[in-house]
Amino acid sequence: MTAPLLDVDSLRVTFDTPRGPVLAVDGVSLQVGAGEVLGLVGESGSGKSVTLRAITRLLRRATVTGQVLWRGRDLLIQAEPALRAVRGREVAMIFQEPMAALNPVLTIGQQIEESLAAHGTLDRRARRARALELMDLVGIAAGAQRLGAYPHEFSGGMRQRAMIAIALAPQPMLLLADEPTTALDVTIQDQVLKLLLRLADELGMAMVLVTHDLGVVAETCSRVCVMYAGRVAEAGPVADVFAHPRHAYTAALLRSMPRPGPARERLAPIPGQPPRLDRAIPGCPFVPRCGLVEPRCPTHAPPLVPVAPAHQAACWSSARVAP
Amino acid sequence: MRGRAPLLAGGAILLALLLCALLPGVVAPYDPLAFDYAALLQPPGAAHPFGTDQFGRDILSRTIAAATIDLQIALFATTGPLVIGTAVGLLVGYYGGVADAVFGRVVDLVVTFPFLVLVIAIVAVLGPGLGNMYVAVTAVGWVFYARLMRGEVMVLRGQDYVSACKVLGYGQARILLRHVLPNAARPILVYWMTDMALAILLGSSLGYLGLGAQPPEAEWGVLIADGKNLFTQAWWVAVFPGFAIVLAGIGFSLAGDGMADLLDVKR
Question: By CB neighbour count within 10 A (0-12 exposed, 13-18 middle, 19+ buried), where does B133 fall?
């Protein structure tokens, strides 16, 4: 296997709060290959978004350690100019709330053209033409008139499409999508997801899709990485992980999700709450909610180990996990 | 939605004052400096709507002529603080750190003293006159603009669109000037308007005290100071320039208010 585009190793993010340090991300490792779509799933507060923001160095007042190798170079230690050369041009990001992620005082056209101007060598006329192409690409009809509109004149789905157009303007190799459909209507969610997938495929772009919706992952991703309490619980090919989960949390998560098919079985919610992250958790963080606890689970954190080809899990009971 | 009445009313007042300020010779019925010994201390009447002073000078003409200096004060005494305060607030609010901590102490220091006392102290050291008054007001006034700007920017720097700009690889100057500044400018522009009203009051106060505009220059505060000794016999000498100050204050306040409403519509 060739070296992955993005290779995150032992990423740790600590926020210093007045009530003490909070370990939001605790030793996350993940890889994204060229053209691959990785789903990053987990409950709210499991560290998915923080992981993305740590990768792009968007966090303020946080201590980030570990390695974020982007094509062999560690982004965490790059100086500002080198970082800027990677941001946008090679790695782009879209956000959960498209309204908040668009500048309210500039038109959509200005914002797309600015993204082109910051990275390309196109002249004004070419930028305009390219902006129109991008509007077309993300499925905004009547692009010529829409370019002059302000974000507040757009609907939620349109805003997210515009956001995607801005992010794609510099033709990045990797798109980090931070819950891009969570703020949208269900019908629009599906359209935007399909759009992202089609674009990733057409442009040969890799994507990290952060979501808490397993259904979305099943539909869209080639690989999945399940996070719990700031750690990677399990990672592997989607089909493999969904059919044979090897972490007690993944299995419980799958049982809590409705499945297609005629059988009307009762859903099994996971009891309890995710643990608080403002104190150290010596063992596996899932222990209080787990049905397969072993004696060593509360005291010894399970390492992320291979359990099948290209499939890793961090669970002492992984052999006993039933789908 | 509120009407545009405040903005229109304020704008009309300011336009009238601006006309007086730019073309005092055209608007004023008399030469503001011409003595007329045949008409000393005339009460308001048909020939002199605002009356005359002890030299027979027409108060209406003098009040109109004074608009030039007072509007100049409104502009010059606020532009320096606006520019410096906006720049400092933008940088301090965005980058934070040591500069922000130092800035916080400077703010504490300045707000400890009453504004007027501080300005008077500086003018007293530099010497009276309009130029030194501008220096004094700028030296103190920028802090209030910067404080306002800093707060706005601190909110904005955590917004997703600022993160989006960073992750698009935009330079810091581009992010600050094109994305943060226009979104933070709204309250500071409104404050600027109301500050102009305060600047006229301040300029008049200092003129009255003899620290601002100096007597040959017609300025509303100076005119009031001229009339104060005549107040029991000829109230009109001091009262009409006072009305002019009130009118200018109302004009700037209404315009500021209307502008606040207008700018808010976009959000």
Answer: buried
Query: Which whole number is the average pLDDT over B76-91?
Result: 96
pLDDT at A257: 80
Q: B266 contacts in A (CB within 8 Å)?
A: 104-105, 150, 152
Domain A34-56+79-260+267-280+289-320 belongs in CATH node 3.40.50.300: yes
Two tokens, residue B43: 């009460």
Report the SS3 class of residue B23. Answer: coil
Is the predicted pLDDT of residue B1 greater than 60, yes or no?
no
pLDDT at B265: 42
ipTM of the complex: 0.83
Summarize pLDDT for B160-171 with one digit per residue, the tens.
Answer: 899 999 999 999
- Closest by Cβ to A119, choosing from B158, B167, B169: B169
Residues from chain A that touch B167, judged by Cβ atoms under 8 A, are: 56, 58, 87-88, 91-93
Q: Where do the structural domains in chain A lie, given as residue ranges?
A: 34-56+79-260+267-280+289-320
Residue B215 phi/psi, 5-degree rounding, is -35, -50
Enclosing H/E stretch for B121: helix B115-126
Contact A166 B166 (CB under 8 A): no
CA A97 from centre of chain: 14
Q: What backbone torsions phi and psi does residue A193 show, to the nearest 5 degrees?
A: -60, -45
User: Contact B169/A85, CB-based, under 8 Å?
Assistant: yes
User: Does A85 contact chain B (CB < 8 Å)?
Assistant: yes
Share of chain A above pLDDT 70, in %: 98
State the residue for tokens 């397969």: A292
Element (H, E) at A190: helix A186-203
User: Which residue does chain A place closest to B178, by CA atoms?
Assistant: A106
Residue pLDDT, tens place only, A230-262: 999 999 999 999 999 999 999 998 888 877 666
Sign of CA dihedral A68, A71, A77, A78: negative
Q: In what order do the strands lie in the sheet with A305-308?
A: A91-94, A174-178, A206-211, A37-41, A223-228, A231-237, A311-313, A305-308
Domains in chain B (CATH in brackets) are: 5-23+53-265 (1.10.3720.10)
pTM of the model: 0.82
**B159, A92: Cβ pair inside 8 Å?**
no
Q: What single-letter amino acid sits at A86?
A: V
> Is B218 within 8 Å of B65 (Cβ atoms)?
yes
Position B39 confidence tier, pLDDT thresholds 50, 70, 90: confident
Choose, out of A56, A68, A87, the residue to mutate when testing the contact with B (most B CBs < 10 Å): A87
Name the percent of chain B lying above pLDDT 90. 58
Q: Return the number of CB contacts < 8 Å for A and B.
A: 74
- Decide: residue B191, CB within 10 A, 0-12 exposed, 13-18 middle, 19+ buried: buried
**How high is the pLDDT of residue A278?**
84
